[in-house]
Amino acid sequence: MKDSRVKKVLSKMVEKNIPQIIVTSPESIFYLTGKMIRPGERLIALYLNSEGNHKLIVNKLFPIHENLGVDIVWYDDIENPIDKLSNIIKKGEVLGVDKTWPAQFLMDLMDRNIVKAFVNSSPILDTLRMIKDEEEIQIMKESSKINDEVMLKLWNNLKPGYSEKYYSNLLSEIYEECGASGFSFSPIIATSPNGADPHHGTGKDKIKLGDSVVLDIGGKYKNYCSDMTRTVFIGKEPSKEHADIYNIVKNANEKAISIIKEGVRFSDIDKAARDLITEAGYGEYFTHRTGHSIGIEVHDFGNVSSVNDDEVKAGMIFSVEPGIYLKDNIGVRIED
């Protein structure tokens, strides 16, 4: 296991009076062990105890040949993994569980009445994962460098007559060529006026001469995500209205980025972008927060919003992505 990260988790457990936890998020298990297993509907759980005796419960469908530095408890598809877990958990004590652990497992464990209480222990891993170490920062830089290359290649391929879906399929090939292992999220490729829907589902609409196209894309590299949005105009200069909207969003993006440093509140970063767009008369059309944390998941815990007064700390990685969305007209988003 990643000993330094595990030690930080154990220290937080003691601080919060949680003697034992089960980590079931594949991303957090990867963070602590270096092994990514996506179990689907099957249970995977890393049991951590503040006094030691850690265990990793895994279905035999997912062989592990390397030494992860933790005892592995195997089960197969004709066994109930909660039986195995129940024999590992320390009876009569508080147990921390992940916020997204499926009810089918949690309710089975709760019905056995073997622990004192259940608490949500996800904030322990969530907050630790917000601060990237040097290894993570280097991987994230490489992931974003690949995304830069992919975006440029996609951009240079854009032309009228081809559908959003065509470019989504092409994008998959480009990521593979550039060394990524797939998408970090389903790409958004939205031609006019579809870009006015911030989460448009990429479809069969074809790009036309003069269209604006929102390109929101991200890939994975060594299990770490990238995420970027550009808005481009196809084949000719945009109208004055559309050019003005584009420049307002671009200025908002740059203004927010310019104030980022340790100690600045996330709410102030959001305000920097939002105030500029509001002063230009488009405040009601900026309908989402300014950004989100990013790492092993494209949306790690933490965000850049008006209600988040937490301060920026060294090692945090997050997006800045203001936008303006005018129904049946245009959508512009620029994300770094």
UniProtKB/TrEMBL annotation:
Gene3D superfamilies: Creatinase/methionine aminopeptidase superfamily, Creatinase/prolidase N-terminal domain. Residues 139-336 form the Peptidase M24 domain. InterPro entries: Creatin/AminoP/Spt16_N (IPR029149), Creatinase/aminopeptidase-like (IPR036005), Creatinase_N (IPR000587), Pept_M24 (IPR000994), Peptidase_M24B (IPR050659), Peptidase_M24B_aminopep-P_CS (IPR001131). Coiled coil: none annotated. It comes from the Bacteria. Residues 5-131 form the Creatinase N-terminal domain. The keyword Transmembrane helix does not apply. The lineage of its organism: Bacteria, Bacillati, Bacillota, Clostridia, Eubacteriales. CDD domains: APP-like (cd01092). This is Creatinase. GO terms for molecular function: hydrolase activity; metal ion binding. Belongs to the peptidase M24B family. PANTHER family: AMINOPEPTIDASE, AMINOPEPTIDASE YPDF. Pfam families: Creatinase_N, Peptidase_M24. The keyword Metal-binding applies. Keywords: Hydrolase, Metal-binding.
